[in-house]
Amino acid sequence: MKQYLEALNHVFQNGDEREGRNGVTKFCTCVQMRFNLKEGFPAVTTKKLPFKSVLSELLWFLEGTGDERRLCEILHGIRDESKKTIWTANALAPYWEKRGLKKHKYDLGRVYGVQWRHWKKSDGSELDQISDLVEKIRTDPFNRRLIVTAWNPAELDQMALPPCHRDFQVFVDSKGGMSLHMNQRSCDMFLGVPFNIASYALLLHMIASVTGYEAKELILTLNDAHIYKAHYEVVQKQLQRTPHKLPKLWINPNINSIDSFSMGDFKLLNYENDQSLKAPMVV
After folding, report:
1. Distance (Å, rounded) from C-alpha 112 to C-alpha 57?
2. Which listed residue (28, 30, 72, 164) is catalytic?
3. Measured over all CA atoms, what is the biggest interatomic distance in the chain, rounded to whole angstroms?
4. What is the three-class DSSP state of 94?
5. Catalytic annotation present for 164
6. Domains of the chain from N-terminus onward
7. How many CB atoms within 10 Å of residue 162?
8. How many degrees, rounded to 5, is the angle at CA 111 between CA 264 and CA 279?
9. What is the pLDDT of residues 110-130, one digit of tens each?
10. Residues 258, 62: contact at Cβ < 8 Å?
């Protein structure tokens, strides 16, 4: 994952330091990374990637729900308030509570998955962007409108957290390769970006698998790439580490619907990694 380490180092060394909504950061604009998926699965190796957390969140997005309890169930196999997910803090955040829009304690509102699967149209009906994307790939693979967006300006105030990774576009080439480009407006380089890389690599593999193509290249454009001051020390530790060989992803070849995947349909093979590096999540 040299691409990630190079981007992390670029922001750390060259970023403009400023104070924003949630603290001091170093930031750079429009940092891009490209990953050839034929070389392996882009899991960070200079610390441990929480692969099950990445996978469970993506499956939760694809279910089209904003209920954090369902994410807990996918990840832990049970709905239990003592078990946390990466979205628990957002669900319980005071600023979200004050809006008075929650249907229940763990409701996150109209976040990613809801926008992907239940985008509200002007006539009152809903658009399932994921099903629409898969159908277009199967019937018109060279279409330049293979785009899914979670950025709905009219509903940003109905979300516990506005989308950081706001949209993605899929491309199919004449040789059967499939690539995906993701735009991310806000990019936590230490905690969030390794997670986002793995998530969209998984999504690309899933879409390619159910439509009969080969996952080829993942491209990420990080519009506001930043490192929080609270992460400076741990970032320096990570930059001193040497990356290992990339692992391989096994995905169940018998699944032919994007809605049929479950946690047991994926394995990360030969994953070598350095020990975890801990840092606080800035909300």
Report:
1. 10
2. 164
3. 55
4. helix
5. yes
6. 2-49+126-269 (3.30.572.10)
7. 16
8. 70
9. 999 999 999 999 999 999 999
10. yes
**DSSP notation for 131-180:** HHHHHHHHH-TT-TT-EEE---GGGGGGBSS--SEEEEEEEE-TTSEEEE
For residues 267 and 64, the answer to whether their CB atoms sit within 8 Å is: no
Q: What is the DSSP string of 28-81?
A: EEEEEEEEEGGG------SS---HHHHHHHHHHHHHT--BHHHHHHHHHSS--T
Tell me the C-alpha distance between 4 and 194, whole Å.
Answer: 8
Q: Is 281 exposed, middle or buried (0-12, 13-18, 19+ CB in 10 A)?
A: middle
Is the torsion defined by CA of 88, 127, 200, 185 positive or negative? negative
Q: Considering only CA atoms, which of 158, 256, 163, 174 is closest in space to residue 207?
A: 256
Q: What is the mean pLDDT of the chain?
A: 96
CA angle 33, 179, 206 (to 5 degrees): 110
Render pLDDT for 192-213 as a digit per residue (tens, 0 to 9).
999 999 999 999 999 999 999 9
- Contact between 239 and 47 under an 8 Å Cβ cutoff? The reply is no
- Distance, in Å, from the CA atom of 210 to the CA atom of 173, rounded to the nearest integer, reads 16
